[in-house]
């Protein structure tokens, strides 16, 4: 029988926070323990101390901690989650952006904490729709997550009803175009031209210096991810997103997430009960 005592728990909590910024105490203890035991069995670990050593060794080999973090975090996502945010982009932001720069520059989007890809593919779908009427419009869409299994699923791009959340039909009506192609099992299959629009990367938001790849973004999505982090990391991330967004760029958080910094420099854009955060034009 595997016994996890308080000291073990504290050690694991510190390792996970140092590595990924994740506050273990935000995740139900039962879930953490269940996943710990499963991972130990998979690796044939004889003792919890032995497993902790593997977790600690992430600088040389991050395999164990990557799998553990992937298992304890909740990767729930679905296509067109918080549809008002997508409606705002297609109806307001995209037309304004391209009419201001006269189609000279691409619109650059980042989806940070993209889970299985539902979010960046939703963005690719609206980008494709916009390009049908505006063929000169160019987009780049980058997406990243710490969970390598999520990224594998994202690259395959086949989604069952859980990822669709039963919303595709009503969304087709709201957005005014038909979204998704389906296989014989009712799964939504992402077409190659949508897949080609998204570049997936392994990303650890705790490594602030690695976020320089987001420099020059016009839109950053980081929805339902900050919930795992403490206020210090949340605030650092918000400052970093601000720094790397272009003037007039937008940050999107999850609909039920509060903005962590009361004295932040973003302007709030109210989208019928949902929000976006805009970096002012002259900054
Ligand atoms: C609930 S999902 C959110 C997915 C999507 N953004 C959405 O709102 O539908 C949270 C994602 O954050 C990822 N995550 C957690 N910690 C992370 C970190 N330090 N760096 C990058 N991604 C992280 C998890 O792997 C998970 O896929």
Overall 3D shape = globular
Distance between the first and last residues' Cα: 58 Å
Uncertain segments: none
Helical run tally: 11
Instruction: Please give the number of β-strands.
Output: 10
The hetero molecules present are: S-adenosylmethionine
Largest sheet entry: 7 strands, mixed
Q: Strands of the biggest beta sheet: in what spatial order?
A: 6-2-1-7-8-10-9
What percentage of amino acids are in beta strands?
A: 15-25%
Considering the protein shown, what is the CATH homologous superfamily of the largest domain?
Vaccinia Virus protein VP39
Mean pLDDT across every amino acid position: 90
Summary, kept brief:
43% of the residues lie in helices and 17% in strands. With 283 residues, the chain is of the alpha/beta class. The chain has two domains: 6-72, no CATH class; 83-278, Rossmann fold.
Report on the structure:
- The structure is a single chain.
- By secondary structure, the protein is of the alpha/beta class.
- The protein has 2 domains: 6-72, no CATH class; 83-278, 3-Layer(aba) Sandwich (Rossmann fold), CATH 3.40.50.150.
- The protein contains 11 helices and 10 strands.
- The chain has helices at residues 6-20, 29-42, 48-56, 63-72, 83-101, 118-133, 148-156, 161-164, 168-175, 192-195, 231-244, and strands at 107-112, 139-145, 158-159, 181-182, 188-189, 198-202, 217-221, 245-252, 267-271, 274-278.
- The strands form 2 sheets. Strands 6-2-1-7-8-10-9 form a 7-stranded mixed β-sheet. Strands 3-5-4 form a 3-stranded antiparallel β-sheet.
- Strand 4 (181-182) and strand 5 (188-189) form a beta hairpin.
- Helix 2 (29-42) runs antiparallel to helix 4, helix 3 (48-56) packs across helix 4 and helix 5 crosses helix 6 (118-133).
- The longest helix has 19 residues, at 83-101.
- The protein starts with 5 loop residues before the first helix and ends in a 5-residue tail after the last strand.
- The site of S-adenosylmethionine has 26 residues, from loops.
- S-adenosylmethionine binds at residues 20-22, 73-77, 81, 113-115, 119, 145-147, 150, 203-206, 223-225, 228, 254.
